[in-house]
Write a sequence for this structure.
């Protein structure tokens, strides 16, 4: 296990609702990245936080937003949920420059 | 153009045999890193091996080795002595750039589903 935890494990939401996903990074890691993995696809980069600041964003609309806290844990918020937002959301932490990213078990979101 | 291409949607291998999973990449950045991850059906991405663009030797980690051919822009994963527990999705990923005080995003391929037969 990597020491990266995510909550909840699964959740079901209705189109138009809002959702918050949480991630606790591995001890000592100051960088957190979020990825969306649709069924049968590779993960797609959403955004990354480094020392509480957003540090790069993928091709996702503004209704995807995030936060990183002083203890380096992080949240991913998605507003106005759409059916296509149904996916596995993966959080990854790393200790900084040049290091591999360690992934959590993911949160599986279903939008109905 | 795809930055990471994995041309094998599925691969089969007999237990105890070796298998090669293909990965080609596309970047104009001279500094980059290549990663392989394993994703079992549980969903967690498990880091396997890393190769930096300036590394002179191919990376190895236990039964995993990375066949890095820079001129051909390929980074194939070789798994020796396959085990039943190796059955999973395998993703090749690339990080472009380096330096500074933060990490960089990973760009993933579409993956290869490996099935190890007894």
């Amino acid at each position: 296990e990597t020491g990266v935890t995510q909550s909840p494990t699964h959740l079901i939401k209705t189109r138009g609702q809002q959702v918050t996903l949480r991630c606790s990074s591995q001890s000592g890691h100051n960088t957190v990245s979020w990825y969306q993995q649709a069924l049968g696809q590779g993960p797609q980069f959403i955004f990354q936080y480094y020392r509480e600041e957003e540090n790069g964003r993928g091709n996702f609309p503004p209704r995807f937003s995030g936060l990183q806290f002083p203890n380096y844990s992080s949240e991913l918020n998605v507003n106005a949920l759409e059916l296509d937002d149904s996916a596995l959301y993966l959080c990854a932490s790393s200790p900084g420059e040049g290091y591999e990213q360690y992934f959590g078990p993911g949160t599986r979101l279903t939008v109905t | 153009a795809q930055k990471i291409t994995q041309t094998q949607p599925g691969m089969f291998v007999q237990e105890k045999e070796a298998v090669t999973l293909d990965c080609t990449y596309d970047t104009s950045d001279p500094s980059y890193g290549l990663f392989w991850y394993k994703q079992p059906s549980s969903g967690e991405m498990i880091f396997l091996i890393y190769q930096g663009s300036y590394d002179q030797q191919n990376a190895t980690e236990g039964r995993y080795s990375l066949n890095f051919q820079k001129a051909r822009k390929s980074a194939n994963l070789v798994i020796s002595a396959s085990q039943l527990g190796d059955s999973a999705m395998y993703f090749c990923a690339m990080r472009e750039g380096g330096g500074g005080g933060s990490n960089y995003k990973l760009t993933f391929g579409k993956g290869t589903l490996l099935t190890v037969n007894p």
Remarks:
- The two ends of chain A are 32 Å apart (CA to CA).
- The first strand of chain A starts at residue 5 and ends at 7.
- Chain A has a mean pLDDT of 92.
- Chain A touches chain B at residues 2, 31, 33, 35, 40-45, 48, 50-51, 55-56, 58, 88, 90, 92, 94, 96-106, 108 (CB under 8 Å).
